[in-house]
Amino acid sequence: MIRFENVFLRYDTGISLRDLDFTIDKDEFVYLYGDSGSGKSSILKMIYMDLFPNTGTVDVLGSDSSNIKRRDIAKIRQRIGMVFQDFYLLSDRDIYSNIALPLELQGIKADVVRSKVTLKADQLGIRSRLSHYPHELSAGEQQRVALARAMVNAPDILLADEPIAHLDEKAAAEVLKYIWEIHEAGTSVIFATHNKSLIKKDPARVMTLVSGEVVKDRQL
Amino acid sequence: MKLSYIIREGIIGIKRSRMPFMISVFSVTIALLVVGLGVLAVDNSLQFLGEFQADYDLEIFLENEATAYQKHELAAIVKDYPGIFRMDYLSKEDAAALYNAEFGEDVLSLLDDNPLPSSFRITFEEDHRSADYILSFIQNMNELDGVDEVIFKKDLFNRVQGIMQLVYTVATITLFLIILSTVFLTASNLRLMILARYEFIETVRLLGASDFLVKAPFFLEGGILGFLGASLSVLLIILAEYGIKYYIHLDLPVKIMDHPELILGLILFGVSLSSLGVLKAVRKMLRFVA
User: Fold this and answer.
1) Domain-located, residue A53
2) For residues A80 and A1, is the Cβ–Cβ distance under 8 A?
């Protein structure tokens, strides 16, 4: 599903990623573990084709980074859900509109959008918040909204970039529980974190990054 | 339907950024108001200057002995001469009536015989209205039998033509500069409006919106903005014309309502300026967005 082949990424300030060579299969849950600046976010950005390698190739859902066109990037992103530590919710839209946006972008009919949004909001426990605006919600709720939006069109992959970094313990545990449920329902999850306790307790593959290099790949 | 998304987002975009949208509409209105008033001011100035010139450019006086056949022949020659816009024949009786109207005296009561000659009054087409062309016309006319004298007020004609040419040149350059600054000012204003929507553009790109789907609602929004701005400017020009008529008591010879092509031009200019300006701003932003 995702394949990195001899990938190097150089920034003007120096090398960011070096010699990445790995595959992530369907239905896997992978933690990308490392300190800040270790290259976790760069790997995620390469998966959703925001960054491209200087050498090597990244293959995502059958599309190759070396020859992908800009319009095809949009199609790939429709098959990838994303959550970030800063939520990326639109502050001037209510929660319903935020969750509905990926479906509306695909031209799905309004009644189908309504039923999918309601279902997802139910699953994530935010149904009562649909008419609220992001600033009226707690950080944990906002992250659940971001999760609902990421999952509303049933993507193949969920990318999570430090999604619990800004949450308190209880909210973080809740969000984590939902992400595991999403995975158990058949979605591959790639979860970037610097939280050591997380990777210790969860039964998942862990790729440890140091200075842009995968130094350890703990398979299940 | 993605079309419904585009229309809905275009309208929602306007609602959500009411203030920057209104400011942009206002800036387009002001810009097009200046352009529209500029065009009308030039048109009216040229019209006023044109009225300084006589109703006709020159007068051909005929010999008293000229026969009816000669007059008929001369009329045919003048009529067929290239560049003649209008030719009026004034008989001796017409000339006497004009004299009477102008000086309040009957020329026939002063003299036994009517001494005033018959004449042709000539007006040239706009593109043949140069002193050189008219002088060569006079030379040709003087060679014809039956022609006594050709009167052409060359100095006045040249002065008015010169002023009109100057007004036209200065106005063209000024209008060009106004339009240029209008384009730049509107474009930078629209860029600011789009910059305020960075969050939205970045988010929808991450959610899988193609460039087309990002740009299309903004394009629509720009079109609506331009249409509103241009319509408002036309409305203000009409109000200004009424104001001039009722408060300054000056009835302008050229009005915007008499020129639907100017109204259409302003609206098309406004719509294309805004929609393309918005499109350019979004395209520029997309270069920096994931």
Assistant:
1) yes
2) no
> CA-to-CA distance for B119 and B271, rounded, in angstroms?
54
The size of the A-B interface in CB pairs under 8 A is: 56
A165 is in which domain, residue-wise?
A: 2-79+156-218
Token couple for B52:
């300084």
* B209: chain A residues, CB-CB within 8 Å: 74, 105
Rg (CA), chain B: 30
Is residue A28 helix, strand or coil?
A: coil
Same domain, A148 and A49: no
Contact: A74, B210; criterion CB under 8 Å = yes
Strands across the sheet with B119-124, in order?
B84-90, B119-124, B58-62, B147-152
Residues of B in contact with A106 (CB under 8 A): 2, 208
Same domain, yes or no: A70 and A98: no
CATH architecture of B55-152: 2-Layer Sandwich (3.30)
Closest approach of A74 to chain B, Cα-based (Å): 4
Q: What is the DSSP letter of B264?
A: H
Q: What is the spatial distance between Cα B22 and Cα B62, in angstroms, rounded to a whole number?
A: 68
Domain end (from A110, A126, A154): A154
Neighbours of A66 (CB within 10 A): 12
What pLDDT, in 10s, does the model give residues B93-135?
888 888 788 777 777 776 777 888 899 988 888 788 777 888 8
Is residue A95 within 8 A of residue A133, CB to CB? The reply is yes
A147 within domain boundaries? yes
Q: What confidence tens digit (pLDDT) does each residue in A151-201 have?
A: 999 999 999 999 998 888 888 998 999 999 999 989 999 999 998 888 888
Amino acid at B138: I
